[in-house]
Amino acid sequence: MSPRWLVLPAVVALTSGSLLMAAGGGANAAPATHHRTTIVRPGGNVKGFVPGGLIKRPHGAQVRRHGRVYQEQSSNWSGYAASGGSGSYNSVSASWTQPTATCNDSGDEYAAFWVGLDGFNSNSVEQTGTDSDCSGGSPDYYGWYEMYPAAPVYFTDPVQPGDSMSASVTFSGSDTYTLVLTDNTEGWNETETIQESGLANSSAEVITEAPSSEFGPLPLADFGTVNFSGSTANGGSMDAQNPTQIIMVGSSGDQLDTTSPMDGAGDFSNTWEAQS
Questions:
Q1: Torsion angles phi and psi, residue 219, rounded to 5
Q2: What integer pLDDT is reported at residue 34 of this predicted model?
Q3: Contact predicate 125/81, CB 8 Å
Q4: Statement: residue 1 has pLDDT above 70
Q5: Coil, strand or helix at 207
Q6: What confidence score (pLDDT) does residue 37 get?
Q7: Dihedrals φ, ψ of 82, to 5°?
Q8: CA distances (Å), 171 to each of 60, 174, 205, in order?
Q9: pLDDT tens string 156-214
Q10: How far is residue 209's CA from residue 207's CA, in Å, rounded to a whole number?
Q11: Are the C-beta atoms of residues 115 and 129 closer than 8 Å to each other?
């Protein structure tokens, strides 16, 4: 079995000093890298909670051709995945505007937005993103990263609806993964460098997800519409790499959200339709 979690500064030390990426102020100053993390979900404990994870395919799900695009159903993912053989992908990136969670009742619902490598046809996911959740009827917003199946790590930096987010995951030949999450509006950047060997690097994704507990996918929070832009894989537009369009469906087969076509710039959107 391959060695796992050789380096994980955020778990070894949950709080470390701030590192300013650029001196001086002003609108053109680079965001600060804080490395402020916690292993406790900001909205409260949910047993076995993971904001991201492997794609879950409903029983009998099939890949279909829709025009020039292949489509696939999932019970927890929507968005796009480019896939190939082992070692096919070494980077993925995208930007989005943090959606507002509309909490229509006193229940708990969840919605995650992320970029990552693996998980489409492998047993790990290297990913970072944000959540717009409802906890007891109140909205929660936060950023996180996850080297699934290891537990998620949450950033304590502020995230607000309407914030301009960007994220990337990059693999280098030295078995090093660099996960970057930036809130351009709040002015922070989190960069995690993790060494791990033996992972597939066989897919790249830009995803809206219904997070899971130990019992499976949780109700999908009403996030309205999330607009992803500039989706790339291996440094080029994901659209040029024939990605699979993923549609999220509930247990009855009804769509939980929609996935728009991706344009040449790597832009697309997901729009909420139902909780479960």
A1: -55, 135
A2: 65
A3: no
A4: no
A5: strand
A6: 95
A7: -100, 130
A8: 33, 8, 14
A9: 999 999 999 999 999 998 899 999 999 999 999 999 999 999 999 999 999 999 999 99
A10: 6
A11: yes
Q: What are the structure tokens assigned to 113, written together?
A: 């937005």
Phi and psi based region of residue 228 (left: phi greater than 0; alpha: psi -120 to 50; beta: remaining) = beta
Q: What is the DSSP letter of 99?
A: P
Contact between 126 and 147 under an 8 Å Cβ cutoff? The reply is yes
Q: Choose among 76, 129, 114, 57: nearest CA to 256.
A: 76
Contact 127, 114 (CB under 8 A): yes
Task: Give the DSSP letter of residue 42.
Answer: T
139: left (phi over 0), alpha (psi -120 to 50) or beta: beta
Please enumerate in sequence order all residues whose Cβ is within 8 A of that of 156, keeping only pairs 6 or more positions apart, or say none. 36, 37, 38, 42, 142
- Looking at domain 9-22+31-272, its CATH superfamily turns out to be Peptidase G1 (2.60.120.700)
Nearest Cα to Cα of residue 128 among 166, 79, 176: 166
Contact 139, 131 (CB under 8 A): no
C-beta atoms surrounding 264 within 10 Å: 8
How many residues make up the chain in this entry? 276
- What ranges in the chain are assigned the alpha helix state H? 9-12
pLDDT of 273 strictly over 60: yes
Provide the residue ranges of all domains of the chain, joining segments of one domain with +. 9-22+31-272
Q: What are phi and psi of 241, to 5 degrees?
A: -110, 20
pLDDT tens, 26-66?
A: 444 567 766 789 999 998 999 999 999 999 999 877 778 87
